[in-house]
Amino acid sequence: MKTLIIILLTFSTSQIFAWEEKPAYFVDVKKEIPTVSIEMRYATYYNFMGKIIPGYTSNKCYLHNAVVKKLKQVQKDLNSKGLSLKIYDCYRPQQAVDTFYKWAMNDSKATHKLSFHPNISKSTLFKNNYLAKKSKHSKGIAVDLTIIKIKNSPSIIFYDSPQKDCTKSSKWPKGENSIEMGTTFDCLDPLSNTESPYISTEALTNRRLLKKYMSKHGFRNYSKEWWHYTLPSVKVTKYYNFEIK
After folding, report:
1. Angle between helices 201-216 and 65-79 (to 10 degrees)
2. Using CA of residue 76, residue 30, residue 235, residue 57, what is the dihedral sign?
3. In the chain, where the domains are located
4. Segments in the chain forming alpha helices (H)
5. Are 171 and 162 in contact (CB under 8 A)?
6. Other Cβ atoms closer than 10 A to 8
7. Which one of 6, 63, 206, 225 is separated from 178 by 20 to 30 angstroms, measured CA to CA?
8. Would the CA dihedral through 126, 164, 85, 195 be positive or negative?
9. CATH number of this structure's domain 23-230
């Protein structure tokens, strides 16, 4: 009986956590755009869950090859001005998206609230459209990014205690090298609205600079998150679930 239970549990786990094969048209962004800075936050402990997210086993950014071609053009424009893209998230496994939902719906206390959603309860993050059960990241057509100065690249984030308020740039963690954007990446707060009237002139100018170059090459910004862009011209129906490695 014990042997049978073990076999059944093993079978069940393999079904739940089975990873798909990466499609050929998903490419490694760093290989295609060597000058871009990659800092996949969900592959670290510096994110709103405070742990490495399932599926993020490497600091690699995969995107649909058509998206990468457009990003390369954005990077070329920025490089000519002494600037560079820094990417925080690219393709996101569906299992990671499911993990976000389970975390948000769980009654346990949020451990990194100040650093990522200081004014919003985690139980309302989906209701407020900061998180979704299905993400275009899982289609490989969405990317989260910012702008850095080339002379400041690369960076190493040191997540230290006590936590830093993500809405206050003067309290950003050591190692954050984004140009002034008013909030940090993944600050799930109204202040992260791209056109928020409550941020500094410098931050608003920089957000518009990012939007200018991304829009020029066909990307569309999500108005509640200054860092989030999709390429709507690429049509993908499947939400993928392959491991980032």
Report:
1. 130
2. negative
3. 23-230
4. 2-16, 29-32, 65-79, 94-105, 113-116, 201-216
5. no
6. 10
7. 63
8. positive
9. 3.30.1380.10
